[in-house]
Design a protein that fits this description.
Strand content: 15-25%
Structural class: alpha+beta
Number of helices: 3
Number of domains: 1
Number of strands: 4
Shape: elongated
Strand order of the largest sheet: 1-2
Order of helices and strands: EEEHHEH
Distance between the termini: 34 Å
Radius of gyration: 17 Å
Amino acid sequence: MDYRIPSRGNIYSRDGRALVAQADAVAIGLDTAAVDLNQEDALLGEIYRLTGVHPETLSGMIEAWRPYGYYLPVADISAEALAHARPSWRATLGFY
């Protein structure tokens, strides 16, 4: 027997604008051990540009977790936003 979870429906405001809608998303995170110290500022700048997460928010966590190589979840962004950022994203190490 196949088991399928139905997709959720969209939720609209009274004037017809989508309040909640289906979208493709991408999770961005870091392997803290893989973040190159020489590229950390560029990496954090790119994350800020894509997600709005300030570099100061992440730098302390990266430093504390670097010896352990923990996965640090950062944010979810739309697949569309990632598609527009792809050239600079590929040039920056540490994204998953």
